Amino acid sequence: MRFRWSALLVVLALGLMPRVGSAQSGTSSAQKSSSSSLGQNYPNPFNPETWIPFTVGDFPTCSANGRQYKVNLRILNILSQLVKVPVIQGGAGNVAGGQPLQNVLLPCGQYVAYWDGNYLNTSQEVASGVYVYVLEVDGVRLVKKGLSVK
């Protein structure tokens, strides 16, 4: 019976989530556009860690040479509560690997974020369930879902 309720909760949560990969911004797309992209986390489902690929700017052409983009990446639970701010894998430009992706300036390019599967500022692993990751590049949001299984 417990699994039936869990399955129902997951189905309801998926129905309430924003559309995968949709840009969400208070500004119209004509005023503010972004060619940045957010990839699907891998592995998915994950246990306990996962990687999140994303691009900033119009990669691979990078026509705005030298431009810096303000980037944020957050992991949220289905109640839209902050679970974790992932870190950048490797490093790029003036951003060191392992730095949290919160208000960082990145040049045009391809990147990978890493999430260890733990809650914010703890070593406790997150519970099984649906998690949403939100990439914000210069105010334009991209959203995807990932699944944690134990």
Helix-strand string = HEEEEEEEEEEEE
Main beta-sheet annotation: 6 strands, antiparallel
By DSSP (H or I, 4+ residues per run), the number of helices equals 1
- Which value, in Å, is the CA radius of gyration? 16 Å
Distance between the termini: 18 Å
Uncertain segments = 7-12, 18-32
Write up this protein.
A hairpin with a 5-residue loop joins strand 4 and strand 5 (82-84). The chain has a single domain (2-148), classed as Immunoglobulin-like (Sandwich), CATH 2.60.40. The chain is mainly β. The protein has one helix at 2-16, and strands spanning 23-24, 37-38, 50-56, 68-76, 82-84, 87-88, 91-92, 95-96, 104-107, 109-115, 129-137, 140-148. Strands 1, 4, 5, 9, 11 and 12 form a 6-stranded antiparallel sheet that branches. It has a 4-stranded antiparallel sheet with strand order 2-3-10-6, with no helix packed on it. Strands 7-8 form a two-stranded antiparallel sheet.
Keywords:
elongated; 150 residues; Immunoglobulin-like; four-stranded antiparallel beta sheet; mainly beta; 1 helix; six-stranded antiparallel beta sheet; 12 strands
In short, what is this structure?
The chain is mainly β and 150 residues long.
SSE blueprint and pairings:
Elements: H1 2-16, E1 23-24, E2 37-38, E3 50-56, E4 68-76, E5 82-84, E6 87-88, E7 91-92, E8 95-96, E9 104-107, E10 109-115, E11 129-137, E12 140-148
